[in-house]
C-alpha cells in the first residue's frame, strides 16, 4: 500500500521505482520533495539579473540592457523570460544610472520618466556621452509635449504606461540585433584592414627574415585567426606567399645587369645563394642564371 506523501519501500528499506529497480531510501533528515523554484524576482539597487535557461523559438540575442526605474518593475519579469540570453541591470536613481552607463558596456537603455526621476536629464547626458547607445523612454503621466521633447533629445522610442511587453520586447530585440550586426561589420572591416596591413608589410619587408608570428602581430589578429584568413584570402600558406613575393622581386632585379646573383639573393632575404637558386628554380622553372640569360635574349620581353 502506498501511503499519502510517502514513496513505497521494500522489505530491505529500499524504495522501488517505476522500473522495478530499487533505490536507496533518503538520508535521515532529508526530504524527498524537491523545492519548487520561486517566481523570478526583479531586484533593484543595480542588481544584475542572470539569464534564465528558457527555450525560445527565435534565435538567441545577447546584450546588456540598463533599466532605470525608481518604482516597481513587474513588467520586467516577462521581459526577462523573453530575453533569456540578455543581461538586465536595474537601478533606481540617477546617480547609479550615470555610473553604470559610463563604466559598463551597455547596449540599450530603458528609462522610466516620473516625478522622482527626469528621463530628459539622463537622456541628454547619455546621448552626449555615448550617442551610439539607443535610449528608450517610458512614462505613466505622459503627454504629447513630453513625447516630442523625448524624440528631439535623441530617444529611439517612447512608451506610455501601461506598457505592452510584446511591443517593448520587439523594439529591444531589434535594437540588440542591429547593434550585433554593426559590431560584426566593424570587426570584419577591422580584420580586413589588419590583413591588408600585414600584406603590405610582407611586400615591403620581404628582405628580412620574416616569421608568421611577426606578420600576424602586424595585423592585430591572433595567430590562428591570421592563418585561417590568410589561407582564405590568398589561397596559399604564409611561406608560399612570402616565396612568391621574393621571387617576383628577384625577377625584377635580374633585369639589372649590374646586380650579381649574390646581391640579388641577399636583397631577397636569402643569406645562402644555393638556397636562393633552389627556391627560384622551384617557383620559376629555371635557375636564376638561365633566367638572366633568357632576359639577355629578350625571351621574356
TrEMBL record:
<dbReference type="InterPro" id="IPR011006">
    <property type="entry name" value="CheY-like_superfamily"/>
</dbReference>
<dbReference type="GO" id="GO:0003700">
    <property type="term" value="F:DNA-binding transcription factor activity"/>
</dbReference>
<dbReference type="InterPro" id="IPR020449">
    <property type="entry name" value="Tscrpt_reg_AraC-type_HTH"/>
</dbReference>
<dbReference type="GO" id="GO:0000160">
    <property type="term" value="P:phosphorelay signal transduction system"/>
</dbReference>
<keyword id="KW-0597">Phosphoprotein</keyword>
<feature type="domain" description="HTH araC/xylS-type">
    <location>
        <begin position="196"/>
        <end position="294"/>
    </location>
</feature>
<dbReference type="Pfam" id="PF12833">
    <property type="entry name" value="HTH_18"/>
</dbReference>
<keyword id="KW-0238">DNA-binding</keyword>
<dbReference type="InterPro" id="IPR001789">
    <property type="entry name" value="Sig_transdc_resp-reg_receiver"/>
</dbReference>
<feature type="modified residue" description="4-aspartylphosphate">
    <location>
        <position position="112"/>
    </location>
</feature>
<feature type="region of interest" description="Disordered">
    <location>
        <begin position="1"/>
        <end position="33"/>
    </location>
</feature>
<dbReference type="InterPro" id="IPR018060">
    <property type="entry name" value="HTH_AraC"/>
</dbReference>
<dbReference type="InterPro" id="IPR018062">
    <property type="entry name" value="HTH_AraC-typ_CS"/>
</dbReference>
<keyword id="KW-0804">Transcription</keyword>
<dbReference type="InterPro" id="IPR009057">
    <property type="entry name" value="Homeodomain-like_sf"/>
</dbReference>
<feature type="domain" description="Response regulatory">
    <location>
        <begin position="64"/>
        <end position="176"/>
    </location>
</feature>
<feature type="compositionally biased region" description="Basic and acidic residues">
    <location>
        <begin position="9"/>
        <end position="18"/>
    </location>
</feature>
<dbReference type="GO" id="GO:0043565">
    <property type="term" value="F:sequence-specific DNA binding"/>
</dbReference>
<protein>
    <submittedName>
        <fullName>Helix-turn-helix domain-containing protein</fullName>
    </submittedName>
</protein>
<keyword id="KW-0805">Transcription regulation</keyword>
Amino acid at each position: 500500500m502506498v501511503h499519502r506523501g510517502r514513496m513505497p519501500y521494500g522489505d530491505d528499506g529500499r524504495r522501488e521505482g517505476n522500473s522495478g529497480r530499487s533505490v536507496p531510501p533518503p538520508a535521515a533528515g532529508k526530504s524527498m520533495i524537491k523545492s519548487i523554484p520561486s517566481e523570478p524576482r526583479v531586484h533593484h539597487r543595480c542588481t544584475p539579473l542572470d539569464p534564465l535557461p528558457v527555450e525560445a523559438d527565435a534565435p538567441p540575442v545577447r546584450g546588456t540592457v540598463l533599466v532605470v526605474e525608481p518604482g516597481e518593475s513587474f513588467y520586467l519579469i516577462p521581459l526577462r523570460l523573453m530575453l533569456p540570453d540578455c543581461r538586465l541591470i536595474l537601478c533606481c536613481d540617477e546617480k547609479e544610472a550615470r555610473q553604470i552607463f559610463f563604466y559598463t558596456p551597455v547596449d540599450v537603455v530603458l528609462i522610466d520618466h516620473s516625478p522622482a526621476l527626469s528621463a530628459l536629464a539622463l537622456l541628454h547626458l547619455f546621448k552626449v556621452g555615448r550617442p551610439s547607445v539607443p535610449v528608450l523612454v517610458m512614462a505613466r503621466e505622459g503627454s504629447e509635449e513630453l513625447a516630442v521633447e523625448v524624440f528631439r533629445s535623441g530617444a529611439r522610442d517612447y512608451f506610455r504606461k501601461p506598457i505592452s511587453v510584446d511591443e517593448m520586447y520587439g523594439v529591444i530585440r531589434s535594437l540588440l540585433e542591429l547593434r550585433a550586426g554593426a559590431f560584426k561589420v566593424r570587426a570584419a572591416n577591422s580584420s580586413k584592414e589588419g590583413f591588408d596591413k600585414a600584406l603590405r608589410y610582407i611586400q615591403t619587408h620581404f628582405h628580412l627574415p620574416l616569421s608568421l608570428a611577426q606578420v600576424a602581430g602586424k595585423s592585430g589578429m591572433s595567430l590562428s585567426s591570421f592563418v585561417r584568413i590568410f589561407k582564405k584570402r590568398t589561397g596559399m600558406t604564409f611561406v608560399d606567399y612570402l616565396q612568391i613575393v621574393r621571387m617576383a622581386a628577384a625577377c625584377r632585379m635580374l633585369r639589372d645587369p649590374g646586380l650579381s646573383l649574390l646581391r640579388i639573393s641577399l636583397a631577397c632575404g636569402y643569406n645562402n645563394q644555393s638556397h636562393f637558386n633552389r627556391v627560384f628554380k622551384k617557383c620559376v622553372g629555371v635557375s636564376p642564371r638561365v633566367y638572366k640569360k633568357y632576359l639577355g635574349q629578350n625571351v621574356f620581353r
